[in-house]
Amino acid sequence: MKRFMVCLRLYYKNLEEFSLNFIDGANKAMVSGDNIGLRNQLVSKINNFHLLCVYDGETRLNSRNHLKSLAHDILRGEKEDMPIFGGSTEAETFFVWEDTYQENSKLFFKLRRTARDDLIFRISVRLAAYFLKEYSTFISTSISRHPQFQNKDLLDTAITKLENLLRNSTFLAEDVTWDNFCRWFKYNLTEQVLDDMERTMGRNELQGLKDADLNNQFYHHITKQLQIDSDFISNFTSNTEQYLQQWFQQVISSIDADRVSVSEMGTFLEVNRTDFPDQSKYPLKMNVPLALTDQDNLTVLSNAAYQSVREVISNKCFAESVYSPWPTAYISKKTIEGTIQIVPFGHEQKNDQVENPKSRELTNEISELAVDVIDALCSFFLANSEHRHDMVEIKLRDLLMIRGLKAKLSGNGRRGGFEKGQVDQILKSLSIVQSLWVNFSKAVVYEKRKPVQVNLEGRTFRFFNQAGKECDVREMALEKKLKFTVGEVFAKYLVRSGRQTALLPIKTLQYNPRQEEWEKKLIRYLSWRWRTQAKKGDYLKPHKVSSLLRAIGKEINTRTPSRTRDRFEQALDKLQDDNLIKAWEYEEWDESIAAKNSWSRLWRNTKVIINPPQAVKEQYQLIAGNSPTSGKFFGQQKLTPIDPYDQLGSQLKTFRKKLGLTLVQAATELELSTSYLSTIERGVKIPSQKVMRQIEAWIHG
């Protein structure tokens, strides 16, 4: 899976370089060639304009179904290829000058966003068809005979996954990409229109037009061609098809199919939901020395020191300090104060020296993976130790497997091992963890159930070679085994009467550190908060949006705050879809505020109610006791969906998925916020009569 994603990342880079080179080529065309003088002059005189594509619901649905039908033909072997655009006109196209566009910018922006989403969908359909067909060659079985390909939802699943990937994790999420595409498109279209005008009017007459007259003639010519000239439309559609086919080919050429394993391809496309002969038949808990509280949760520490270390690493809080040669993060909280530093192993007593270059190198290599390693080590230790000074032995592969990674196949069908790059990443993260030096001048621990203030200094984890001697973890690369124990900083919190642990969904470690960073950070923070709330049972105590953003090290995008809000809500929806939270909603948020200026300031101060899954409440039941706030209500509403509107929410979700739309896309079409639409689908919110009619009209067309 990782190798497949590496290939995709290579494709993103190459694709972006191609796009920019393609634009540069178009620009060079403006200053070279036989007609350089005339063409350059004429192009420069045309005022800025936009072409807007408007889709009606029925035509759009038919178009999407037609594309899927072509994709199915490819899977059945009845076609070898498919266009990104169909042969018939699928949208009404309108010409708009820049000043008119600016006067109605909000409306036109929505139309452009819809057209952009449609284009991403089209590319995703073709990619899905290609990769699924490619997968059949991996397994040497025809698509028509393979049982997994009889699943009618398989293509939709692959399309949705690719669509989300392109939309959220590639250069297609960047406005500059689409600006470049529009620039190329406008230049290409302008050339085509001017060529037609030259043939109609003659070169001399065209060249003699004044600027205003030229633009006026240009407007009348292009609007006429868009209305009645099918050849004209077909021509610029064909040019766009060629441009996008270059994108598509760049994807294919960037992925070396021979280097992608069966399981990697299958996992990415979600084909291998059943066991193939080459896949492990044993669940995770049978392969790693780990005791899960249930099939979905790990046990980790929950004290303030542990959480502070995780946050500092996750949010990369280290900076240069005038008081120390080592990269330092300062901690000042109610129950804990002090510093966390990056001090390479072996330099504990050399704080007066000039900073070792290794510390800066380690600081630059910090990633979310290091936090995963901390949680994994902690869970392994708690599961396999009886005393806080015990030494635990695990294999390096255990740290890879707990993250959901699978070893690649060897030639004889057995597992051959993990990739060197995967192992190197784990070793780097282990080196970062080993380099953590904690010095808390104030820390509260519990002895005989009473809080005691102490000083804590030392490593978080200590590592030993097979001879039992503490050593640099990088020296253990060839041994493939780890012996470790918790340092004195964490050991102080493992005295039996003061032991504090929390549940952490194993899915946290399996989320992608890049594409699913928000989800990973949020659930890690929420899991810790639920443990701190367990005593009072106030799981439904609202969280300020600003507090959640600060906890995960994110800030509101001042230029386009809607991006931050969309990503925040997308992460919460993903956590709910994965059953890591039960439900979520805003507390007293008026959606009309989002239409006003400076709405982000009010949004960041609003509150979110996040309900934990039932397993968390049950696990902490003994701590919570009989608290009346243990979760009967969600906000001001019961947690169970409201029956009269549950059917509407179900119909809405079914119809949205049938169209292949994400919540963001559907919300754009309905002119509702993503969060509001999500709560309607889940039966948490009761839509107004106006919104209800709006949704019903959208569904029934």
From TrEMBL:
SUPFAM superfamilies: lambda repressor-like DNA-binding domains. GO terms for molecular function: DNA binding. It comes from the Bacteria. Residues 652-695 form the HTH cro/C1-type domain. Pfam families: HTH_31. CDD domains: HTH_XRE. This is HTH cro/C1-type domain-containing protein.
